[in-house]
Design a protein that fits this description.
alpha/beta; single chain
Length: 229
């Protein structure tokens, strides 16, 4: 049975990925690392500290005082917060998907790799506070995505088994996180990576949340996911 619906946030509920990439490029420029938008797409779904480390390992820059990896991650996060809070809108079908579960009395939660401060920004930007039972950040767990911690934590806080949850994710690391937690996992990849084999572990794949339907819900209500030990 499906006793809860868990949603990733960035790129799934909110159209934030372009703003993250813009913030990354602006900050990396200051240390002499000039990335293209397509290069930034390579790290979609990764926590920002991991993104900074990813690029530093491949193109190390001189770490001057005030430009440590942690400081670079902080600057990117601050820049993204400002851009998302001012400009980001909902992804197609996002609000309707939340409403779908609200109307059926099924608890809805956000399970995001982003910090709680950004989750709060997005909730207010999209005006969805009253549609959510809770919101949870992987930064409050031991491990961020692709580890399953945030999904296990969200299910625990809701008082349900992860195997009785349906999770919606847009990134490969997020799909792996939700799948490893044992949820019924729905992948909603971006256009540029829709055919990537990393999404094959999902129980279903949608082109967009606009493709979510009552028929698919009915099909999945008695579906058994395959949790990874």
């Amino acid at each position: 049975m499906i006793h809860a619906a868990l949603f990733d946030m960035d790129g799934l509920l909110v159209d934030s990925e372009p703003h993250w990439r813009a913030a990354e490029r602006a900050v990396f420029d200051t240390v002499g690392l000039f990335l293209t938008d397509d290069q930034c797409k390579q790290t979609t779904g990764m926590p920002i500290p991991a993104v900074v480390n990813y690029w530093y390992q491949r193109h190390p820059w001189v770490q001057e005082p005030g430009a440590t990896l942690a400081e670079i991650a902080h600057r990117i996060t601050e820049g993204a917060h400002e851009r998302i809070g001012a400009y980001a809108g909902p992804m197609p079908g996002a609000i309707d998907a939340l409403t779908f579960f609200n109307e059926r009395g099924i608890p809805v939660a956000i399970a995001s790799a982003s910090p709680m401060s950004l989750i709060e920004v997005v909730i207010d930007r999209l005006d969805i506070r009253d549609r959510l039972t809770l919101w949870h950040s992987a930064t409050l767990e031991v491990n961020n995505k692709p580890a399953p911690d945030v999904y296990l934590g969200a299910a625990r806080r809701l008082g349900v088994s992860p195997t009785d949850c349906i999770a919606f994710e847009d990134s490969g690391s997020g799909v792996l996180s939700a799948h490893s937690a044992g949820t019924i996992t729905i992948a909603v990849p971006a256009d540029f990576e829709r055919d990537d084999p990393k999404f094959a572990i999902a129980d279903r794949k949608l082109d967009a949340l606009t493709n979510w339907s009552a028929e698919l819900f009915a099909e999945l209500k008695t579906y058994n996911s395959n949790p990874v030990d």
